[in-house]
Specification:
Blueprint lengths: L4 E5 L9 H8 L3 H15 L5 E2 L9 H8 L3 H13 L4 E2 L5 E2 L7 E5 H13 L20 H33 L1 H21 L6 H9 L4 H16 L2 H4 L9 H6 L8 H21 L1
Antiparallel strand pairs: 1-5, 2-4, 3-4
Length: 283
């Protein structure tokens, strides 16, 4: 089971001084529109700034009014103004996209939260920095003396030190790295296969993080690849030079591999047959 994450929205101090926000605030019901915009951002922070009711169902204005407890007329006006200012975009499949959310999102895991609370309880700083003594004990060489001594022997011991460090590193690697590499390489190898197939290369690091959090990854991975091969050939993904292909992070978060239709499967088979016939013709 993947570890639960807690997200927050990093709102800039000058948010309400921005020209676009000040313009919205000047409109009738402007305060309600800004509040609606903030609600959309908060709702989308765990989906990389993209909103859908479910993988198969996009949000309608009525649904948005219901879930945000906002008057339907304000929702209609808000979407119109937010689109005009390019704060919100709506893709052809109905996905609501808030681009600015990607740079305004922070998160931490439950384990990180516990560690931070533990440090606070112990009175330790984030960097665990100790106070330095203002006086040097008697008999201890000064910093300048140490530097001179070290500089003389540095060239002689440099090669030996490197060899010693490397030997220690090799010993540690022999004890630790096989286990770590086995876990990492398995997930990363699956991701690299997914990434090589996925036609839209955007935000690889974010996609890898989302990919690692897929529940029962080993079990569902073959289905993901099979669905992806079919969806690559679908009309939705191939039209307009792939303009409507979802970002890979969105694809993973919303489990889009579960949305393959019979029409997509038939189209994929047709395309595969045409491709095979064409290659046979060339031979």
């Amino acid at each position: 089971m993947s570890e639960k994450r807690y997200y927050w929205l990093k709102l800039p101090k000058d948010f309400f001084k921005r020209h676009d926000i000040k313009y919205i605030m000047s409109l009738p019901e402007g305060e309600h529109i800004v509040l609606f915009y903030l609600q959309l951002m908060v709702e989308s922070i765990d989906h990389a700034g993209e909103l859908r009711f479910s993988p198969n169902i996009p949000y309608s204005e009525e649904m948005l009014a219901s879930v945000t407890d906002t008057d339907i007329d304000i929702v209609t006006t808000a979407l119109k103004e937010l689109k005009k200012l390019e704060l919100v975009k709506v893709s052809e499949d109905g996905t609501i996209i808030l681009e600015k959310v990607k740079t305004m999102t922070g998160y931490e895991t439950k384990w990180a939260e516990k560690k931070r609370a533990y440090r606070d309880k112990k009175g330790q700083s984030e960097d665990n920095v100790l106070d330095m003594s203002s006086k040097c004990p008697q008999g201890v060489p000064t910093l300048s003396d140490k530097s001179k001594s070290k500089s003389k022997s540095k060239s002689k011991s440099k090669s030996k030190s490197k060899n010693t460090i490397l030997a220690l590193d090799d010993e540690k690697s022999a004890e630790v790295s096989p286990i770590v590499e086995k876990v990492l390489s398995e997930e990363e190898t699956m991701f690299e296969q997914f990434w090589s197939i996925y036609p839209k290369k955007v935000d690889k690091k974010g996609s890898l993080r989302a990919f690692k959090n897929i529940p029962k990854l080993k079990e569902v991975f073959p289905g993901i690849i099979k669905a992806l091969e079919i969806q690559k050939e679908s009309t939705q993904w191939t039209k307009d030079h792939g303009q409507y292909i979802p970002n890979p992070t969105t694809y993973i978060h919303q489990e889009r591999w579960l949305t393959v239709s019979e029409t997509d499967e038939v189209q994929a088979k047709i395309n595969d047959t045409v491709k095979q016939n064409y290659e046979a013709f060339l031979l």
